[in-house]
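<instruction>
Derive structure tokens from the sequence
<data>
Labelled lines for chain and fold:
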Amino acid sequence: MTAREETSTEARRRRHAAAWPFTLLVLALAASAPGQPQFTQVLHGVLDGRSEFIWNGGQKYVYPAFGDVDADGDLDLFLGNFGDVSFFRNDGTPRSPRWTFVNRNHLGLDPDDHWPAPAMCDIDADGFEDLFVATWNSELLYYSASPTGLTLVTRNFIPDIGGSARLIIYPEFGDLDGDGDFDLLIGVSQREGPAPEPGLSGTVLYYRNDGTPQAPAMTALGNALGLSVSPEFVVTPELLDLDGDGDLDALLGTGDVWNRTQYRFVRFENVGPITTPSFVSQETGFLASHVRPDVPGLNAEAVDLDSDSRTELVIADEWALHTVLRLPSTASPEWEPDVSLLSHFESRADYPGSSCTYDIDDDGDQDLFIGAVGNVEFYRNVGSPATPHWRTESLALLPVPDGFFQAGRSLYPQVCDIDADGDGDMLITGEYANNRIVLFENAGTPSSPDWPVDSMIDNWQGISVPHNLHICFGDLDGDGDLDMVSSNRVGDASGTVTSLDYRQNVGTATTAAFAAPVSLQAVPSYPPSFDGYHYEDCVPSLADLDADGDLDLLAAAVMSTQFRSASWINLFENTGTATAPTFAASPDVLNILPFALREAGYVLTSDLNGDGQADVLCGDSDGGLRYFQQASASLSIGPAGATVPSGQALSLATPSATGTVSWSLIRNASGATINPSTGLYTAGASTEVVDSVRARDDRGTPGDLSDDLIGQAHIHVISPASIAQAGRAIIVAGTRSADTLWPATDFLAQTAYQALLARGFTRDTITLLTQTANQDIDGDGLNDSDGLATLATLQSAIEGLPPGTNRLFVYLVDHGGDTAGSGYVRLNPTETVTGSQLDAWLDALQTAQGTDVSAVIDCCRSGSFLDEMIAPSGQDRVVIASTLESEDAFFTAGGHVSFSDALLGAIEGGLTLGEAFDLAQGAMDRYQRAQMDDNGDGLYDRDGDGALARAWEVGASFTAGSDRPQIGLISANQTLSGGVSTALVWADDVTGASAVDRVWAVVVSPEFQPNPDDLAEFPIEEQLTQRELTYDPVDERYEVTLTGLTSLGAYKVILYARDVWGGVSFPKQTYINQTESTEELILLASDQAYDANSPAAWSSQVIAYAYEVALARLFPPANVTVLDASGNGILEPQDSPPTEAALLAAISGANGASQLTIQLVGPGSVDAFQINASDTLTASEL
């Protein structure tokens, strides 16, 4: 084995075997605050197979606005909330958005600016889309966008809307009169104050722009367009061409906001000429099946989300962006829902209560319950203890009959085994009045719960309080049963006070009986009170936050008024013992979170990433959840997760430990054993279960738990039937002569091998064809290689599969290409395998055995395999290619940044093949465009392919998953000028289940072009610049200063993080725009028509768009030459009319430019371009 091969092997082995001592990084973090847990926010999670912002808190009265605020060519998102505007920057591409959450209150709005409604348009025609925000104080704030960001120009872009009346207004921009500038509509509804002008409330005001595209001048025309609804209703306007006739129609969202009824869309058709809009009401219940009629805040945003020239309609309301519809077309005449086009930007439950977690299906991980109005929502964890993947199981799990709690208010569920019979019972309290406990005893089993409504116990234990009863359970006195901590709020409209009471369980573990409440003397500390009416609330939670063996107390301290709330999460450390708790009168930490919540908060503690440390989930009154992962020092165990058959031994290790390590089983579902001193684990006889192992490093004072480090590992024990269910796998790692790519190829083959082991495959069910006859990948001392990669060995591996093989997973990685339309991947320096050869072998297998086949090919031009690998009729096959048929593959950072690494990591984490494809495609869309065919037509179609793959599990269904680190916030886009060629790039909130050992940036310069040679076979390995980010303890983030940024245009800076096990985060991207360069651009539009449907003005429109793109790329206008017919009003002013002489002069004038781009648009023939009526230009002349 060569030195480079050894490096690749060890890099992958670290993820599954003993950890290296990079834990020192985490120790340094914890040393600044001994004994106090530290938390960092995690935004992303996997819900229903998609990685989204499920932990970003809720939104209320959601109002979206899409636009390119940073002029990078794709759409960004501003999301209006009840009291702020969130900003999500698009760091992906126009066709494949990838959203980065920048911050919650991006504009710094005052909390009194309720119901902000954003809208975007380039009001000054400078290439940057400006932002407008309406508030319920009749104000329309105007923020001008520029390379340096947003600047507030005025709070009254339209002064005195409604006179002295205080109105709720909603803006919408569009060119209604066909003059090339933006006109404005404002939907108006009455809020309070003096009576409005007659006919004002419930109408849409029209402001015609009588200025120019660069200098708007708005003329108020009142309700001249006749767009109106009932006076008592709210109205939100949206402009779009609904009937394809070239003008803008109107869609009004409306409803009775105070009674929460009759929400609907009203469609108005524009029947006037292009210069004079005239609207006629056509439909009062438009898209009714996609509207929630009893949910306020209905609005819509028309936008092309995926840059396919087909408009989508994003529908939002009080709680969420809940529907995306594709506008009908000739090919698709119906409105088509497409949830794949837009992420969840918030977690949400309609009118939520608090949440809780419990392993309700006894599979070793935590499931999630969220209280809603009159019901409890249930999200099952289908991932693993270390990597939760949530699936929406039921939005009406436990409907509580009417009359038990206040109508229209939220429920607060708690799940615990209150009667010690091994399953989870449900205890529910409610918001506001009628606060007592309702018990639903679990009449099912530990793995299959049943909470019959007809056997519920009302007013359980006779415990009730006047307002907002919040409860939590834990064994505070160490007697083996569950005690209770409850809140008690007292007061009136002038203010309230909440105390925390201890209710000791004086009964038994099976029959609870609680003593009279005793005040804990722990007095919550609240955020500063607001003026006027306010109330306080407090939500308790118990957990051993410092791992010292006793339960600490968290309290969500909420300060609220009618429209404003804020919350701290107080920490009261238990300074007593596990049998005699003691809490200080004041919190030890006022707020354990990195920031105060801007809404009413609820708190629960739960170990969501399986590292043995309690994390924090905070629910909020806007329907959301926020996840704060404990970032305190922990002990790394190797392997952190494994899948083994019953009876197999597994050696666990903690190389970073400095003291005596003790081992224990904290969950023993299989009947396993573990050596308490050595960590040798042996799986028990029970299968399809999870065992959890804890290691404790007694690194400080012997016997003192408070300074110990703990870590956990999770082992899935599976049966021979599960191993058989996984099927068979073939891994092929090819090479070529003098192959500099081999270390990356070898690394990815090993990654595939380890991922398949984690998914229930074994050495006997994996065939590894590589470049060495002896290779030990999993570190058990045995050879994992099945021979060299050749045509003969690959054919033999497929044809030699045993009878009855139900599934086959094939993975090929190396150089590849496309010869005369036929794809191939290299096996060794002298042999390649083509798509047609591979297809023939797989066809024979499927015809003979009916084996389901999935194949993943990662090489250059791998998209050319799709049409050559169509399965026989009636057989299931999924073919995944990492690139288009004309693209190179990227293997950057030794393979860590590649389609394969992202795909295999997602598969190992428990996602289906289709879900893993979606994640990997998105992770690499900045470099290449992955393809998939699972419907057997040999083509990739995003809408037509994916149904089979998204239900396709690779390996056994009950297997371990792994986690990846995450990057939270990154530096914003930057613009360089004045000779500056350096920029500071940073990454913050870098988290992971294991310690992070590397954060780095891949820098793609504006002029970067992959190797265009179709026969080059070379993936883009190390052609891109990589820069390391180092941790700055002052700013508490990772930073690097990039230098030499001298090329004109946008540098893409793509950030990654890697943990000590080799897991790599999904990327985050920022741009650095260099505005000073000698690059030149010439745009020429012929003054001749192409045909009757394409007049000369069409050519002018094309170069006008090209000019806007150039400005967006920060071309100095002086570096752009425009040759176009003057006076057509499309792109003014021009440098010269289009003539051959003018073109030659422009080319001569570009002498000395670092780069010259010429775009010619107009009619032509095979050998000539028609510049004007008399001038033509041949290719040789050019």
Notes: The chain has ten helices and 71 strands. The mean pLDDT is 84.
